[in-house]
Amino acid sequence: MKAELQQLVALQKLDTSIRKLQAELEAIPQRRAEIEKEFDQRAFEIRALEAARDDAHHTRARLEIEIAEQRLRVERAERNLMSSKKQDEYTAAIREADAARKQISTLETQTLEQMESFEKAEASLKERGEEIESLNSDREAALKAFDDETQAQTDKLAANRAERERLVAALPKSMGALYVRISARIRDGIAVAEARNGACMACFMALRPQAMAQVRRGEEVITCDNCNRILYYTPSDSAPASSASTQPKVAHT
Ligand SMILES: [Zn+2]
């Protein structure tokens, strides 16, 4: 009986491990997509910075052409001013030169703004230089590490399942059936629970002293009155402090 209980405990551990691995493997597409999303986001930010830098550069070049055109307009107006013979020609030439100078001033302000934008984007790109340099290889490395981990989990799951089959085959049929019946009924699928300090460690309900004694002997299958799980007892040889008492602790009053 003791050996069979140990087999049930081993089976329970395997089932818990299998369930955990299955849940992790089910989450793989989502977790992988999250890694890709993070790198996509960073690549997007970098492309946006490069676009802002290039845009500022092109806009500044265009503004400089416009400034040159306006300077020609000023020169033309000044020539007209010199050659003007009538008051209205003179006034028109002055207005034209003023308008062109005002336009130049506006264009120069815009040029400064574009230079600032360019420098800001350049500085951000420089700051992220190392990241940009290794972004693609970092992405590949992160995905490879994830895929390797996934492969290891898949292998472990297969090994667990093989071990489980071996265990179930070695178990007496009635024990196997009892285990299946209980684990199917319990929400978390855990059919075997440790009994410690006079209580069931799955539902924490106190056990009758007689039941606890039977569980300690391990000669028959005892189930928890409250949660119906199969109970087992592990002598605590690794924790000397607890060997003095298996009673629940009583607070001093
Ligand atoms: Zn219980």
Overview of this protein structure:
- The protein has 253 residues and is mainly α.
- It has two domains: 125 residues, Helix Hairpins, CATH 1.10.287; 73 residues, no CATH class.
- Helix 1 runs antiparallel to helix 4, helix 2 runs antiparallel to helix 3 and helix 2 packs antiparallel against helix 4.
- The longest helix is centred in the first third of the chain and has 56 residues.
- It is rod-shaped, with a radius of gyration of 40 Å.
What is the name of the CATH architecture of the largest domain?
Orthogonal Bundle
Order of helices and strands: HHHHHEEHE
Percent range of helical residues: over 70%
Which CATH first-tier class of the largest domain would you pick?
Mainly Alpha
In short:
The chain is mainly α. 74% of the residues lie in helices and 4% in strands.
Can you lay out the helices and strands and say which pair or pack?
Layout: H1 2-26, H2 28-83, H3 87-127, H4 129-170, H5 173-185, E1 192-196, E2 199-200, H6 209-217, E3 230-232
Parallel strand pairs: 1-3
Antiparallel strand pairs: 1-2
Helix pairs in contact: 1-4, 2-3, 2-4
This protein binds zinc ion (ZN).
Zinc ion is lined by residues 193, 200, 202-203, 205, 224, 226-227, 229.
